[in-house]
Amino acid sequence: LSSVPLQILFYVNGIYYIFYFLATLAMIVYKSQVFSYPDDFLAPDLTLLFIMAILEVLRLYLGSKGNLTEEEAPLGLSLVITVGSVILSVYFLVWQTYVLKADVIINAVLLFTYGLESVLQVIAIAAFVS
């Protein structure tokens, strides 16, 4: 009953998130050097990025484990953590101090994969329950 497309998406999203994290970190450093980035906002932006990375590792681990073992609980917990990841992604898309076009593009891709994963997770949970 495990979902192969979901497992593939978890793997691809894991690789993409490494790129996302490094690109966002580089852009924060770039923005702090090029623009007059307020010191009061630099630390929270970096902290939220690292919190998002921790959530992402946990989310992908639980989702992959739940899918492969065909258990609803880890997959459902991964789905709940996805909500937190979506909120943080929206923060970096809309509310961070400076938003570059590159921020918009990489966050849009990340939000798209979150949406697709969420749909596949709900389908997988429904298959496991029945």
From TrEMBL:
Task: Tell me yes or no: is Transmembrane among this UniProt entry's keywords.
Answer: yes
- One example of a Gene Ontology biological process annotation: non-motile cilium assembly
Q: Which Pfam families match?
A: Transmemb_17
Q: Which residues cross the membrane?
A: 6-30, 42-62, 74-94, 106-129
- One Gene Ontology CC term in the entry: ciliary transition zone
Q: How does it sit in the membrane?
A: Multi-pass membrane protein
Q: Which UniProt keyword terms apply here?
A: Cell projection, Membrane, Transmembrane, Transmembrane helix
Q: What are the subcellular locations of this protein?
A: Cell projection, Cilium; Membrane
Major location category of this protein: other
| Protein name per its UniProtKB record | TMM80 protein
